[in-house]
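Hi Prof. W.,

I finally got the Inhibitor I9 domain-containing protein prediction working! I wasn't sure whether to trim anything, so I left the full sequence exactly as given:
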Amino acid sequence: NLDVYIVHVDHAQSDDLETFYDSFLPTNTNLAAASTNRTTDHPRILYRYRHVISGFAAKLSEADVEAMRQMKGFVSARPERMMPLHTTHSPNFLGLNQNTGLWKNSNYGKGVIIGLVDIGVEPSHPSFADAGMPPPPAKWKGECKFRAGKGACNKKLIGARFLIDELSPLTDGHGTHTASTAAGNFVGGAGFFGNANGTAAGVAPLAHV
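And this is what came out:
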């Protein structure tokens, strides 16, 4: 039962980072590096950090992590987590205020349909909730082609198609970020580890996607 952990260590404990990183891994799976090649990787290490922080990402068990905690130079081990992208400050950066001025006078994009060509979208993302959204305009003739049980369109996310028919437009990545930046609905309590706290919203939060 191995999970991916981001392990942070104190690089001051060693001048040879590669050997130092390997020393934290279970000895029964260590690989001996070739005498002329110090780039041979430990089979569990997924990535070695050499800039900004010292550490590595590796597949570890809970017992492995507990053993690491007793070792000199260990700082922390955090399990890998998927962090959704939140856009909280883009409207303010553009000088848009929620209850006054141009943003309010534009009716927040109500009635507009924004189309994006990107890698796909994650329909369960809170930016695509349809609270406060009107129905799609009567002229809308698009389709929603998520696979059964894998997502659904609503009054905010009114259509999704993939350019290759047998593939699904369901994915959580760049398309989710750009679509929510353009037209994400208001999402309260957004932030990133206590930074940029506020209400997330796209530039046209009442537009359809």
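The two ends are 40 Å apart (CA to CA). Does that look reasonable to you?

Thanks,
D.
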